[in-house]
Batch of 2 targets.
Target 1
Amino acid sequence: GENVEQHPSTLSVQEGDSAVIKCTYSDSASNYFPWYKQELGKGPQLIIDIRSNVGEKKDQRIAVTLNKTAKHFSLHITETQPEDSAVYFCAASIRNSGYSTLTFGKGTMLLVSP
Amino acid sequence: DTGVSQDPRHKITKRGQNVTFRCDPISEHNRLYWYRQTLGQGPEFLTYFQNEAQLEKSRLLSDRFSAERPKGSFSTLEIQRTEQGDSAMYLCASRQGVINNEKLFFGSGTQLSVL
């Protein structure tokens, strides 16, 4: 089955700096790559996603890039703010028979210091 | 749209007891998923419903686990004879059954502690 590796496991930055989280996936059939933010005591919240026919997608301060050949994708957060502090998860899915299930990475704890 | 709702938020039980969790998906979403998340890990897929039909189950779903979605709306997840290894956050998620719309929305989860 699909395997998603995520790194780093923890990331500390100063407010205003950029943060980059990287993921690799194993199954070349994967074609959907969402990123989730999880705050303490809450469920994961979808923040951005990308499909395999797109190389980059931006939404205000966050962006995701995808390299299908290398089978890796990255989350970029610019101008980080303390409220960006959370655990971030990447995921990948394989569409099969009209439905799909997500395989998640182990998460990156991002700490943004004021 | 009130989002995915899960109840209870927390459950403490003794080993060997049965527990049941409820999930109410976003109203227009016909696809419902259960995931399990342990500390320091990402969510792991358990099972999936399209309307009332349970279409896929993970090997993580032992025979002590059963999930239902009787009318294609809310879903329940029951764990029989709980074990300490069942302690985890149980997450429910839902999405629309539209091709090329993969966006999955999660609830806040039920945190299970088995003593």
Target 2
Amino acid sequence: AQSVTQLDSQVPVFEEAPVELRCNYSSSVSVYLFWYVQYPNQGLQLLLKYLSGSTLVKGINGFEAEFNKSQTSFHLRKPSVHISDTAEYFCAVSGQSGGSNYKLTFGKGTLLTVNP
Amino acid sequence: DAGITQSPRHKVTETGTPVTLRCHQTENHRYMYWYRQDPGHGLRLIHYSYGVKDTDKGEVSDGYSVSRSKTEDFLLTLESATSSQTSVYFCAISESKGASGYTFGSGTRLTVV
């Protein structure tokens, strides 16, 4: 089974500042990693995913994440945030092996608030 | 949202009544999932399906049942609704195991009074 820990439940930042949302995972098998974004009163939308290869993954809206296997982390970053980035962000993990490991396990979310 | 529709979008029901939520997809994806979202808990898996008539329990399945008689429909039933089942319910679909990620519906906000 897999688990995900999002280290910050809330992250307030000022507009145009850089931001990092932290995610650590635990798994006994190799993993796929995902970041989703949820705007108020909406469903979740995929931001980016790591499947294999380059550990730096670029997603939509200028976000990127880096997979660090030794630290079991997949932190999300953006060099300059906008007011419109205010949303809740979820890190998720699934196992690569067979059985029931393929289901996505989500972290509890990080609420990013961008202030003017 | 990319061919996935949840109904109803909002529902208020009384304690002890049965409730059915519907998830309909037009993507012909094999895998379908029901999650509930609660503050401080993120998303928790209730049940999932890996094919027609093939379903299994997730981590919070007590008090819920599911059915999938057609590829496109995945129904979630609260057998006897309780106040602890007040939540936002999301359906998700995926084309394959793991790597494809999920596409989510817009959610159903259920209030049990």
